[in-house]
Write a structure and sequence with these properties.
mainly alpha; Tetracycline Repressor, domain 2; about 180 residues
Length: about 180
């Protein structure tokens, strides 16, 4: 009877995801992953042709995590893009390594930033529809303008240059929405 495999693809992806979350995806190396997983590098390369294949699965896991994060974020603001913007800025602040991997890297495994942000549920499309229903003539243009502010604030939060309280952030998001709609 063959020995049961204890190191699985799921286990390695979850362990590599945790490592990326804690230290950044650039620190997901075979040696570090093996140490964190409690194994040698042999099971990693038995299950994956190379580290790039594993990291692409970690990237997909991070995309799903962002969508889960957004789904569980507090919502309730009437104005479009405010809840999304608030969640995105908080995500950058709370999960800087994952944010950097998803939204600041040019390595996105054939996904655009918009596709990552929109997710499988059409988050951005939903907000654009909400803007149209509120009387916005060009919701795509509104999204672009809002997104420049939102993404900039999120990037600033990673460096510690954006430290406004949530209430002020909400006010800025609402003011930005009203200025551009």
């Amino acid at each position: 009877m063959p020995r049961k495999e204890t190191i699985t693809r799921d286990y390695l992806v979850e362990t590599a995801f945790t490592l990326a979350k804690q230290e950044g995806v650039e620190n997901v190396t075979a040696r570090k992953l093996a140490a964190k997983a409690g194994c040698s590098t042999q099971p990693i390369f038995r299950l994956y042709d190379n580290m790039e294949d594993l990291v692409s699965e970690v990237f997909s896991r991070a995309c799903n995590f962002f969508e889960f994060y957004y789904d569980n974020a507090t919502k309730g603001h009437e104005e479009p893009f405010v809840d999304l913007g608030l969640a995105y800025i908080k995500f950058a602040s709370e999960e800087p390594h994952l944010f950097s991997m998803l939204f600041l890297s040019d390595k996105r495994y054939d996904k655009t930033m918009y596709e990552i942000l929109n997710g499988s549920k059409g988050i951005v499309g939903e907000q654009m529809s909400k803007a149209k229903a509120a009387g916005c003539a060009n919701s795509g243009d509104l999204f672009t303008k809002m997104w420049i502010f939102i993404h900039g604030a999120a990037c600033m939060s990673i460096t510690g240059d954006y430290d406004l309280p949530e209430a002020e952030t909400v006010k800025l998001l609402i003011d930005t929405y009203k200025a551009y709609r």
